[in-house]
Amino acid sequence: MADSNLHLLSKRGVSVWIDYLSRQMLESGKLAKMMKEDAVVGVTTNPTIFQKAIADGDAYDEQLKELLETESDPKEIFLQLSSRDVDAATDLLAKVHEGNAQDGYVSWEVDPTLAYDREATFDEAMRLHAWLDKPNLYVKIPATKPGLGAIEDCIANEKSINVTLIFSLQRYREVVEAYIRGLERLVASGGDPGKLHSVASFFVSRVDTEADKRLDAIGTREALALRGKLAIANAKLAYEHYRESFSGPRWEFLAGKGATPQRCLWASTSTKNPEYRDVMYVEELVGPDTVNTMPEETIRAFQDHGEVRGETVLEGVREAHALLEQLRAVGVDYDDVTETLELEGVQKFADSFAELLDGVNAKRGELAHA
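Structure (tokenized):
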């Protein structure tokens, strides 16, 4: 039987993860089927994803009824609900993780309302790791300025972290530095860096959405010609920095102690603009030791018509550098684009978290009167 398009992608060094998790997906066997047929070897979640899962149908009602007998705090109720899904998914992916310690992970995100509080984020991340003490659990921390310190502290405490909401190259450099410093602290304290892993979730399609909006507003021929180019260029430049950072004497010392590189994870890889190819953020970012976490519709689209042409993430890097200058020349401020996206990203997750807690309260009201 011929390999599927996603299996071919995996052979090029791209780990296929799915950007969704729900109780129904687990209990129906759908996730297990996707692991076999679609080469899925990891799962990412966030507040928006869980909000949709819990609001859709009655899959959580039975557990919710039980929780209402002892718990009134909606956040704690949500954590109980989501922890059961994350726990089941880590068990399902355990064999993947045993075969390849960099895959088989399930990500569980800290409360996004803590994104600008270093200590609170660290405490929450450590709490979630203690709650589900699994070797293939990633706790997600947003890459805000305060988040960088929490990330370093978690790595120094031997905890695997998925760093999320990275948009700018400067912030990505800071994320890599936080990871390496955390490893250095861990080694200095006698810890084992081989027991943890990390990914840096670099958001892709949202960058084009924001940049294209500004290019459309400028409206010149030169500006319009640059639409749909920044997101892929941005990711390729991040990958260039990844290759530079995880080489040389500083890294070789840590690698000698068992440390592994913090892989680039391409997130937000569904295509928002219908004028663009629906699998472009997968096809153009193929490279060794990367992760692409996709919503189901992108997985289906790539299986149907995705092309694996080679290590595309290594192509056009010089042009990617030039693009940043071209954008500046037509009046698009790259730093403002990425700063706007970070602020909006944190706010969107916080809004989804608030909506999620409202949904838990609403479900509680419905079940109380049932």
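The longest strand covers residues 137-142. The chain has one domain: 5-368.
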